[in-house]
Design goal:
globular, 18 helices, mainly alpha, single chain, about 55% helix, about 0% strand
């Protein structure tokens, strides 16, 4: 209503512009709060505001793109509340959650799931950053045996073993073209990242719940992964007609890892060091979340129950709107719901931050506990935004079957904004740690580095030259792969008209803009 004097078209354009401004400012405020560095906050602000998926949702009129700024704004209020032990900032975070519920159901649902992981891990891992640096190695030499290979050796080998086993299973089921297909490298890479992320989080939790130092916890958590080297035993089920034999053997290997980890962890247990006064902002945050959940239950009963999706979406329907792994680094997807590309610059910085955490280098890392949290959540939401299109790692399918209301959304790509926000915080952290020494001694170095990083981020998400206005790929491009001769989109059998994929072409829901949209 504030922009109505500009006319209907002018008011809508002003609202679109405001969505970019609010998204950038909210992400910048969050990164500035948790990293205490203006340069480190730059990647989060730029990439979240200009994220192609968020831009696509905004330019097509979806409220999800307009309301996305509430996600970093909620976390900013929460972090301010934890830092100041403030009820008021916690109430601000609760009001953001209530606003989400009033505006966009997908956003409040996914945010509630995220907070269920973020809050407890933030309390456990954030307190460890007040201790001396985690990369100070013990004075005694490393013992021989599993720990002698280095803390990260067993997770790396376990990732390769699990990835190899998963690809064998997919080839056996006929879901891979051949064993030596290109999918082998993708599966190995995914499982390597999963085991490394799990190891980093496990080590941090072990240190937070015990009296072990950071290095000792990393070494103990690494040893828990060595039984997974026997994961290829899963193939025994292909030769013995025993139901669920492979799953049972894999579960026993995981149990063996827990038996390695838990006894020494129990002997060294201690009370976790939580931030002082952390309950003050959490109470109003919880009240806001409960109010938002109550409103969504009311909407479900009064409005959603009468719709065609009242029983949830089928997994085959979700698969139609699921992006592929290649879409993470491919900007030319003509379907806006699958446009999860976030740019090579952010991907490179996030991967650099992950390597710094794994190798524990350079020395003197600060806030490595929070960086581990961002890396773990970024990896989790990246995998979930692919939906069921990654059969070698059926994480989405598992949550779809067991988690309440997880079967209602049909566009898993909407989780990309959560992944990108976490990766952006990790990228800012890595940039801050690497540039700390370089920026000393000359006033021009910090602004020059900021300009360089900003230019790299913009170039990495610039609209590809192979796309024409309206979001359609040029003939023969990636966007034409699913279009029959004549240019009309294929209809999907078994789906009602309103559930058909969006037409890829100029229309009222598409406009020319960032990312080829």
């Amino acid at each position: 209503m504030l922009f109505l004097p500009l006319g209907l078209a002018g008011a809508y354009n002003a609202l679109v512009f405001l969505s970019y401004l609010l998204a950038g400012l909210a992400a910048y405020a969050l990164a500035r709060q948790v990293l205490s560095d203006r340069l480190a906050a730059l990647p989060a602000a730029l990439i979240f505001a200009l994220l192609p998926f968020r831009a696509a949702q905004t330019l097509s009129g979806h409220l999800y793109g307009f309301a996305a700024f509430l996600l970093p704004l909620t976390l900013w209020c929460l972090e301010r509340g934890l830092a100041r032990r403030s009820w008021a900032w916690g109430a601000g975070a609760g009001l953001c959650l209530l606003a989400m519920a009033r505006m966009e159901g997908h956003l409040i649902y996914y945010t509630a799931l995220m907070l269920g992981l973020y809050v407890p891990l933030r309390l456990l891992l954030g307190g460890q950053d007040q201790e001396p640096s985690a990369d100070v190695l013990p004075s005694e030499p490393e013992p021989s045996g599993p720990g002698g290979l280095g803390p990260a050796a067993w997770p790396l080998l376990a990732g390769l073993s699990l990835g190899f086993t998963a690809h064998v299973a997919q080839a056996r089921l006929g879901r891979a073209a051949s064993f030596w297909s290109a999918g082998l490298a993708e599966t190995l890479g995914v499982y390597l990242l999963v085991t490394l992320g799990a190891w980093l989080l496990l080590a941090r939790l072990a240190a937070g719940l015990s009296g072990l130092g950071q290095y000792q916890a990393r070494r103990l958590a690494g040893r828990a992964f060595w039984p997974l080297l026997l994961a290829p035993l899963y193939a025994v089920q292909f030769f013995l007609d025993v139901p669920h034999l492979g799953t049972l053997l894999t579960g026993l290997l995981g149990l063996a890892g827990l038996l390695i980890l838990l006894p020494p962890l129990w002997r060294a247990r201690c009370r976790p060091q939580l931030p002082l006064g952390c309950w003050r902002p959490l109470l109003p945050l919880g009240l806001g979340l409960l109010a938002g959940a109550g409103f969504m239950i009311h909407v479900k009963r009064s409005i959603f129950a009468a719709s065609i999706a009242s029983q949830g979406r089928g997994l085959d329907e979700v698969r139609l709107f699921s992006p592929r792994l290649a879409d993470l680094w491919g900007p030319a997807n003509a379907h806006m719901e699958r446009l999860i590309y976030f740019g090579w610059a952010l991907g490179g910085l996030a991967l650099l931050g992950l390597c710094m955490l794994v190798l524990n280098r350079p020395r003197g890392l600060r806030q490595s506990g929070l960086a581990t949290l961002w890396a773990g959540l970024g990896l989790l939401f990246t995998l979930l935004c692919l939906g069921p299109s990654l059969p070698a790692l059926p994480l989405y399918q598992a949550l779809y079957k067991v988690f309440p209301y997880f079967n209602f959304p049909r566009v898993p790509g909407r989780l990309i904004i959560f992944a990108v926000l976490m990766w952006a915080l990790l990228a800012g952290w890595a940039l801050r740690e690497l540039s700390a020494a370089w920026r000393r001694g000359a006033a021009w170095r910090a602004p020059a580095l900021a300009v360089l990083v900003g230019a790299a981020l913009l170039l990495s998400i610039w609209p590809p030259t192979g796309l024409r206005p309206g979001g359609r790929a040029s003939p023969g491009g990636p966007g034409e792969a699913e279009r029959p001769p004549g240019g009309l989109p294929r209809r999907r059998p078994g789906l009602p008209p309103q559930d058909q994929p969006f037409p890829a072409g100029p229309g009222p829901q598409q406009a020319s803009g960032l990312g080829g949209l």
